[in-house]
Design a protein that fits this description.
alpha/beta, Spore Coat Polysaccharide Biosynthesis Protein SpsA, Chain A, eight-stranded mixed sheet, two-stranded antiparallel ribbon
C-alpha cells in the first residue's frame, strides 16, 4: 500500500504558532473519516467559514504539541488539511477504529515506543486545548497506566440514563474500574424505591473521549482480540480493562464542550462561533 504524507508547509496565517512552553512532549493525531451515518462529510462541514477539521487542528496546535497530524482515509479531507497549511497522512480505509488508524500513523512516522500520542477526535471543534495538554501530562505522570483519559461530572439525570453518554467509575486513585452506556454506579435503594432520579448524582461521571497513549502500546492494543464486554457495550477502551491493564481517568479542569454528531450540534456550534 502506498501512503501519502503532506509536506511540512508553512502554517497559514489563520493557524496559531506552536506553544513551546509545555514541558510534556507529545504529539496529536486527529482521526478523521468522511463517512458518517448522521453527517456525511462531517470533517469538511463549515463552522464560521472554515471546515470543522481546521478548527480541531487549531485546538490541537494551541495545546503545545511537537506535531499535529490528521489521519484520514479520504483524499478530500487530506486536500482540505493541506490547503489550510496543516499536516495530513492518508491511511488505510480498512480500519475498524480510530485507534487502528493511529497505530498506522505511528508506524508510518516511525515514532519511538515511549513517545506520548494524544488521540483527538475530528469532530471536537470546541475541545479546549488545555484538556489536550492535561491528558498528555497525565500520561507523563502515570507510568503504570497504558492510557490516560478524562471525565466530567454529570449534573442531569437524563444523561445518566442516555446510552449515548458513556459513564465511567474509578477507584480511589482515579483508575478506571468500568465504562458503560448503562447507569453506573447503580443506586440500588433510590431506584428500588421508585425514584425517577437518584437523590445524589455526585458519583456519576461522563467519559470524555480524549485519550493519550505511549506509541508502543498502540501496536500491542490492535493485536488483541476484541473483548466480550467491548463488543456488548461497543466501547473500545474496555479491551484494555479486559486484559488487566490500567486506564487513568482525571476529572477535567474546564468544560470539555460537546462534539458534533448531528445537524443540531453543528447549528449550535456555529452559534457559539458567532454565526
Amino acid at each position: 500500500m502506498l501512503f501519502q504524507i503532506s509536506p511540512l508547509v508553512q502554517m497559514s496565517p489563520g493557524l496559531p504558532e506552536l506553544n513551546k512552553e509545555n514541558t510534556t512532549k507529545f504529539k496529536v493525531v486527529i482521526p478523521a473519516r468522511y463517512q458518517s451515518s448522521r453527517l456525511p462529510g462531517k470533517p469538511l462541514l463549515e463552522i464560521a467559514g472554515k471546515p470543522m477539521i481546521e478548527h480541531v487542528y487549531q485546538r490541537a496546535l494551541e495545546s503545545a504539541p511537537e506535531k499535529v497530524v490528521v489521519a484520514t482515509d479520504d483524499q478530500r479531507i487530506y486536500d482540505a488539511v493541506t490547503a489550510f497549511g496543516g499536516e495530513a497522512c492518508l491511511t488505510s480505509a480498512e480500519h475498524q477504529s480510530g485507534t487502528d488508524r493511529l497505530a498506522e500513523v505511528v508506524s508510518i512516522y516511525q515514532w519511538q515506543p515511549d513517545e506520548i500520542i494524544v488521540n483527538l477526535q475530528g469532530d471536537e471543534p470546541e475541545m479546549p486545548s488545555s484538556l489536550i495538554s492535561q491528558v498528555a501530562n497525565d500520561m507523563a505522570s502515570h507510568k503504570d497506566a497504558v492510557i490516560t483519559t478524562l471525565s466530567v461530572a454529570i449534573d442531569a439525570f437524563e444523561d445518566v440514563i442516555d446510552p449515548n453518554v458513556v459513564k465511567v467509575v474509578t477507584d480511589a486513585e482515579g483508575y478506571a474500574q468500568y465504562f458503560s452506556r448503562a447507569p453506573i454506579p447503580w443506586h440500588r435503594n433510590d431506584f428500588a424505591e421508585g425514584l425517577q432520579s437518584p437523590a445524589d448524582l455526585k458519583l456519576f461521571y461522563r467519559h470524555v473521549g480524549l485519550y493519550a497513549y505511549r506509541a508502543g502500546f498502540l501496536d500491542e492494543f490492535i493485536n488483541w482480540e476484541p473483548a466480550p464486554t467491548e463488543q456488548i457495550e461497543s466501547l473500545e477502551q474496555l479491551r484494555v480493562l479486559w486484559h488487566g491493564r490500567k486506564i487513568h481517568v482525571s476529572q477535567t479542569l474546564v468544560s470539555p464542550g460537546i462534539g458534533v454528531d448531528t445537524q443540531a450540534d453543528l447549528d449550535r456550534v456555529n452559534e457559539v462561533f458567532g454565526l
